[in-house]
C-alpha cells in the first residue's frame, strides 16, 4: 500500500508498502497521536487490517530426531515457569499462552486502535479480530482516512508546504 502520513497538519513522508497495511504497521502509524493524524491509501484495493495477535512455533523435534539429534531442556525448580507457555503449546496445550500472552496483548492492541481511530466502526464483524479489508471498505469502517492518488498527494504536500512556510515567515 502507498500511504501518506500527516503530522499535525504537515505531510512528513510517503511510505510504500506491498499492497497492505496490517496490524503492526497500523499500530505504529497511529499508536501515538503525535506521530500522525491521517492515514491515506493510494490504492483502493490495498489490504488494511489484520488487527490481532498469534503465536507460531516450529516444532522441529521429529526432524532433529531423524538426523540423530535429541535436545533436552532442563529447568531447575527456581525456573519452573521459564518458557512454560511455549513448552505447553508445543506439547499441544495452548491454553496458557493464549491466556497469559496472546489475549492480554490482543486486548492492549485493540485498545490502541480504538483510542486512536475515533471513527472506527466497532460493530463491523472482525474489524478488531484480524479481518482484512480493502481500502475502500477500510475508509468506510474508519481504519484509514481516505483514498488519495499520487497527484492529490503531491498537491496536498504542496499546499501544506505553503501553509508551513507562511507560518514560519511570520516569525522572521
Write a brief structural summary:
With 172 residues, the protein is of the alpha/beta class.
Would you give an account of this structure?
The chain is an alpha/beta fold. It has one domain. Helix content is about 40%, strand content about 15%. The chain has a 4-stranded mixed β-sheet with strand order 2-1-4-7. The protein has a 3-stranded mixed β-sheet with strand order 3-5-6. The radius of gyration is 22 Å and the shape is elongated. It starts with a strand and ends with a helix.
Keywords:
172 residues; alpha/beta; 4-stranded mixed β-sheet; 3-stranded mixed β-sheet; 6 helices; 40% helix; elongated
Average residue-wise pLDDT: 78
Order of helices and strands: EEEHEEHHHEHEH
How do the strands of the widest beta sheet line up side by side? 2-1-4-7
Helix tally equals 6
Biggest beta sheet attributes: 4 strands, mixed
Gyration radius (Cα, Å) is 22 Å
Fraction of residues in helix: 40-55%
Judging from the principal axes of the Cα atoms, what is the shape?
A: elongated
CA-CA gap between termini: 39 Å
What's the number of domains?
1
The tally of strands reads: 7
**SSE-based structural type:** alpha/beta
| Residue runs with pLDDT of under 50 for 5 or more positions | 1-20, 27-34
**SS strand fraction:** 15-25%
Amino acid at each position: 500500500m502507498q500511504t501518506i502520513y500527516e503530522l499535525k497538519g504537515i505531510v512528513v513522508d510517503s511510505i510504500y508498502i506491498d499492497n497492505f497495511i496490517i496490524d503492526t504497521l497500523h499500530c505504529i502509524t497511529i499508536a501515538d497521536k503525535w506521530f500522525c493524524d491521517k492515514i491515506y491509501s493510494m490504492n483502493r484495493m490495498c489490504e488494511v487490517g489484520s488487527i490481532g495477535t498469534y503465536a507460531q512455533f516450529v516444532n522441529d523435534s521429529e526432524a532433529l530426531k531423524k538426523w540423530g539429534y535429541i535436545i533436552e531442556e532442563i529447568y531447575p525448580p527456581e525456573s519452573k515457569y521459564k518458557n512454560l507457555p511455549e513448552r505447553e503449546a508445543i506439547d499441544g496445550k495452548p491454553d496458557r499462552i493464549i491466556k497469559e500472552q496472546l489475549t492480554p496483548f490482543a486486548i492492549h492492541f485493540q485498545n490502541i486502535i480504538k483510542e486512536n481511530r475515533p471513527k472506527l466502526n466497532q460493530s463491523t464483524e472482525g474489524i478488531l479480530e484480524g479481518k482484512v479489508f480493502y481500502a475502500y471498505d477500510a475508509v468506510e469502517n474508519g481504519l484509514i482516512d481516505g483514498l488519495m492518488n499520487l497527484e492529490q498527494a503531491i498537491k496536498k504536500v504542496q499546499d501544506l508546504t505553503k501553509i508551513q512556510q507562511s507560518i514560519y515567515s511570520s516569525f522572521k
